[in-house]
């Protein structure tokens, strides 16, 4: 059994939870899935997971479940290690006045998380790892601004190109107030890696990320 990560040829000797267990309260972890992973691509003990969760919660406002998860999962870790996580989150923060603070987002850190998450979701829904000739780009809707023409084009593109029918739809976490689940994901594309794939992630029904897995055509020389 090989590793779930794109292009990795190592043997999957460990199990990786998708989404990460650390995001979920006790009692909601049972629903999670696992994929086979090599040591290198197993992020389950990664410190980045909590950084990413903190950013998701802070940017998913207003959401009752985001606040609840932040309080239970992120807040207890803020002061560990001499406040390492708190300092990392506050680095470069801008005080906007009247109590509001804008926190910078470490996009490369989010990218490595969402690329790995997309690989896991694709592995589960397609039955094998994402082939090497796919390029991954993650788009963070809440960081793009509300009326970005880029986002409108993406949303219209998904609907018309794939007729709105996902290959896979997965939901994790019990629905809370206003039916907020912690994580839902839809996978659009043609089965058997016959096309580009679009993975639409949503945390708390608010923090949306679109991962575009673009099929690079291999040009044959004649
Ligand atoms: Zn691997």
Provide an overview of this structure.
- With 222 residues, the protein is an alpha+beta fold.
- It has one domain (46-222).
- The chain has helices at residues 48-59, 64-74, 80-90, 107-126, 141-144, 149-162, and strands at residues 14-18, 33-37, 94-97, 100-102, 134-140, 168-172, 183-188, 197-203, 207-215.
- It has a 5-stranded antiparallel sheet with strand order 5-9-8-7-6.
- Strand 7 and strand 8 (197-203) form a beta hairpin.
- Helix 1 runs antiparallel to helix 2 (64-74).
- The longest helix has 20 residues, at 107-126.
- The chain is globular and about 60 Å long.
- It starts with 13 loop residues before the first strand and ends in a 7-residue tail after the last strand.
- The mean pLDDT is 88.
- It binds zinc ion (ZN).
- Residues 3, 5, 8, 10, 38, 40-41 line the site of zinc ion.
